[in-house]
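Changelog entry

Holo records now carry the ligand SMILES as an explicit input line rather than a separate metadata file. Below, a converted record for zinc ion, shown in the new format.
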Amino acid sequence: MKTMTCRDLGGPCTLEHHADSADAIIQAQDRHLRDAVKSGDTTHQEARDAMKGRWLHPRKSLDWYNGVKNAFASLPAA
Ligand SMILES: [Zn+2]
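Structure line, unchanged by the conversion:
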């Protein structure tokens, strides 16, 4: 398991996600952003919109995606 925070993934808070793969971390962040915005947390709106845009334009988002993958790969496993 490795840990990345909401902030590591472009969000505004320090909530930690734990997962075995970068994809799982991104999914956890996506869920977190969705839940935060749904519960009225406006600080997560911008990151939520950015994440939504990534699903709509996956090719344009490759840099971000690869950046997260690289960051994940370079983390020490816990
Ligand atoms: Zn957050």
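Spot-checked after migration. Residues 6, 11-13, 15, 32, 36, 44 surround zinc ion (CB under 6 Å). Residues 42 and 56 are 22 Å apart (CA to CA).
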